[in-house]
Amino acid sequence: MLTERQLEIVLAVVYEYIKTGEPVGSRTIAKRYLRGRSAATIRNEMADLEEMDFLYQPHTSAGRLPTPKAFRVYVDAILRRQRSPGDEYQYWVRELKKKRDDLESALRYATKLLGDLTNCIGVAAVGPAEEAVLQKVEFVKVAERTALLIVILKGGLLHHKTMQLPQDMDQQTLDELSQRITVVASGKSWRKVRDALLKYVMQGLQSYAENCKAALNEVDILLLKDSYHLFTGGKHNILSLPDFADLSRLQVVMALLEEESSIAELVQKFSPDKGLSVMIGKEDPAFPIEDCSVIMASNIADGKKTVLGLIGPVRMDYERSISVLEAVLDSISTDVEEEVDDI
Amino acid sequence: MLTERQLEIVLAVVYEYIKTGEPVGSRTIAKRYLRGRSAATIRNEMADLEEMDFLYQPHTSAGRLPTPKAFRVYVDAILRRQRSPGDEYQYWVRELKKKRDDLESALRYATKLLGDLTNCIGVAAVGPAEEAVLQKVEFVKVAERTALLIVILKGGLLHHKTMQLPQDMDQQTLDELSQRITVVASGKSWRKVRDALLKYVMQGLQSYAENCKAALNEVDILLLKDSYHLFTGGKHNILSLPDFADLSRLQVVMALLEEESSIAELVQKFSPDKGLSVMIGKEDPAFPIEDCSVIMASNIADGKKTVLGLIGPVRMDYERSISVLEAVLDSISTDVEEEVDDI
DNA sequence: TATTAGCACTCCCACCTAGTGAGTGCTAAA
DNA sequence: TTTAGCACTCACTAGGTGGGAGTGCTAATA
């Protein structure tokens, strides 16, 4: 589809455009990237590339700008090649690792860091605690037919939720229920024990069958179906970018970011085994903003699916952004070992 | 200090400026606000008011703009007079009341609502649970000399925190400790029982005196000294305001908002018995942004100090903003009754 | 056939130049 | 004390100009 030389030109235009933000002329390319050829030759190639929708001119007598298609080619080239971890920002990443206390605050800090290091907006999302290992499950009665469900995960993480009970239940019976669940589930991941649990839990609590089912279901929701919790940081960074000098464009981006639902959709869609992915311009309908790119990567942290991302202008330094993102994600991620033990 | 007529002119200039955003001329004031007098008269008065630092001219041949001093006069006049609850936004406030589930999400929603209704940035902060009534206190061992402290408040609210124990302690002893604290504190506010608690808690746990002290201290921190948790919403609103057409100004505001610490300071300083207060321009050093005003009000919600605020341009519709803020705050606030019972 | 030098052409942009109008300060009269 | 009148100031706009970067096309060249 593209000749070797055309590819070279496309990559050069994108690279130069990312650096300067200005339309790139044939002379520049000839002088800095394809020294053997003259500007006229490049011009001919460029005219072809324009027909093929890799380049376009903002007006007749201007240089060329890359289209999203050209960015795609450029980013794919970066992703294909082996990336080396940059050094300048390693200090910050170590700093983050040092401060890493609970996941929430780590992510909050990470989004700021991501944003500041790349001049983009940092986003983070934690999903359900699918891989987490349980330590204790407890129900506390807080009102008639209302209980507070508390799940403590290994490492001291705590999840809780207020739930309605189909039948009223006194605290003693709730304790019995808590006890039964804890005995079986402790030291294992919920995903593995949930199916085997109901029969055992019901023993001695037959008259509360409905409650038992409801209780297990709520734990299910809490640990497996909990929606993603979002963080963003460094929003102010993009204000200084020339790409967003236009206020109306800025407003669209900010409004979308505050909406959260579209970001959540984006994260939801992004399955962790995808590694790292880059969306350019309006490639993904969930983030339909021209001139914005999204980079996302994910891993497991504290037993939870964790997605880290960057939102910035299409004209961003992808190379740097990607390696910052990878480094930060790496320093957030943890592997929690699970006790091997059956019911 | 100001004659009756001068005051009238100041209020008129502020009012007109808030409406139009343009410098206000003597003719406008004469025609719309002081019909008896001619423009020339108003001009003379205005020259005096300029000397007194209530008005200024952006350039020689322009109308007058109000200084922060003039805004102060205007706002004080509003605050002095009885305010009527507006009707147009009552629908949204009712909606908020309907959705009011847990305090966190209510505040999150409230900040959005505040922002959208007033075209400002909504902020909210919840402080320590000073007034809350306890239901249960529990310690769960999660590692060698590390325990998870869980405090359940009446109504099913939960606070938790990981703490270090001076001495190691097995779960059984931790249970004993939990039990002792719960028995005394349940049904009362922590503030009232904390001082009387230590002696009782130590009984039977003499050899763990250090741990007991540490444990009570941690509950103290969790319930009384916990720092404010901040929310902001509707940040995108100010992007469309002509007052922030200047990107650099916008950037300063956004950066400050993301910093959080200065907002926290602002909230911290604001003591709840102050009712409602308005800071104009750089009146408060904690929010040193020219052309920005802050309105804050606070109350108790779910036993916690709750501050609601608005950050917007100095040129905002104070009348509307104040009444929206009061209405939203009112719909968030709750009074929790406390059981009357002594140790 | 691919490449290149030359040249006319296009169009943005920065700069300048009135012209317009809203609003002022000052003065002198009511 | 108030007001009409008038000269003056200054931001804002529209229209005009020159320079420069970059193009497309053509014809000569390897």
Write the layout of secondary structure elements.
Two copies of one chain form a homodimer.
Chain A: H1 4-20, H2 26-32, H3 39-51, E1 55-56, E2 65-66, H4 68-80, H5 90-99, H6 103-118, E3 121-126, E4 134-143, E5 146-153, E6 157-164, H7 171-185, H8 190-202, H9 209-225, E7 229-233, H10 247-259, H11 261-269, E8 276-279, E9 292-301, E10 304-313, H12 318-332
Antiparallel strand pairs in A: 1-2, 3-7, 3-10, 4-5, 5-6, 8-9, 9-10
Helix pairs in contact in A: 1-4, 2-3, 5-6, 5-12, 6-12, 7-8, 8-9
The structure holds a DNA duplex (30 and 30 nucleotides).
Can you walk through the features of this model?
The structure is a homodimer of 343-residue chains. Chain A is 46% helix and 19% strand. Chain A is an alpha+beta fold. The first copy, chain A, has three domains: 4-80, Arc Repressor Mutant, subunit A (Orthogonal Bundle), CATH 1.10.10.10; 90-127 and 227-332, GAF domain (Beta-Lactamase); 134-225, Enolase-like, domain 1. In chain A, the strands form three sheets. Chain A has a five-stranded antiparallel sheet with strand order 7-3-10-9-8, with helices on both faces. In chain A, a hairpin with an 8-residue loop joins β1 (55-56) and β2. The N and C termini of chain A lie far apart (59 Å). Residues 336-343 of chain A have low confidence and may be disordered. The first copy, chain A, binds a DNA duplex (30 and 30 nucleotides) through residues 23, 25-27, 37-41, 43-44, 46-47, 57-63.
